Amino acid sequence: MAVNAAVLVWLALLVVAQTLVVRAVLVVPIFRREDGKGEKTEAAAATAAAAAAAEPCGAQKVFVFLGSGGHTGEMLRILELYRDTLLGTGSHVVVGYSDQASRQRFESFSRASLEHPHAEYVRFRKAREVGSGKLRALCTVFASTLQSVFTLTKLHATLVGGPHLVLLNGPGTCCIIAYWLRFLDVVTWSRSNILYIESLARIRTLSLTGKLLYPVVDEFVVQWRELAQKHRRARWYGIIV
């Protein structure tokens, strides 16, 4: 009887493992068949980029993550360009940030540019400090991951219940965000809509964050034609920041 019980347990675990593998294949975008090229003409850039952002969501919840420095500047320009689509009336905005200066810049932007300047703010630890040594970087990544797991689990539950968009554009913390949301998609039978926009500074090669996120985001947008020609899943709509 004990042997039979052990066999049944192993069979059950095998079925669960196979189910999760199949689910992961269905959820992770890299396994999907892509139709057509990732390039658009300059003339179609504005409408196409707006469509890429709007398609997954409609009236929606929007989560944006602000990296420090230039990443925040680029994200604010993206939000300004597509504010009617992403931040219009009826949208619930959740702003993730890793430093107080980025939050203050978004608050200034929302007061100046938004009709209804209200957002929910969620603080994340930085995944890596610029110039830190390997040991310190490892400790920082571990602490950031642990904090992010709890924060993102709660956030995921509020996002996937309706139309939503997760908008990312650069820093290493984006990797933790995207991969944990995908993991939750697999185990909770849900679906996150994740859009990543590569930095304008990346002309011929992807950033490390871009390379890591390329397989798992729904839309991977680059701002230079050369990158779209090199990467099958990349979408190019011209310079959008």
TrEMBL record:
Keywords: Endoplasmic reticulum, Membrane, Signal, Transmembrane, Transmembrane helix. Involved in protein N-glycosylation. Essential for the second step of the dolichol-linked oligosaccharide pathway. Anchors the catalytic subunit ALG13 to the ER. PANTHER family: GLYCOSYL TRANSFERASE-RELATED, UDP-N-ACETYLGLUCOSAMINE TRANSFERASE SUBUNIT ALG14 HOMOLOG. Its main location: endoplasmic reticulum. The lineage of its organism: Eukaryota, Fungi, Dikarya, Ascomycota, Saccharomycotina. It is found in: Endoplasmic reticulum membrane; Nucleus membrane. GO terms for cellular component: nuclear membrane; UDP-N-acetylglucosamine transferase complex. It comes from Lachancea mirantina. It comes from the Eukaryota. This is UDP-N-acetylglucosamine transferase subunit ALG14. Transmembrane segments: none annotated.
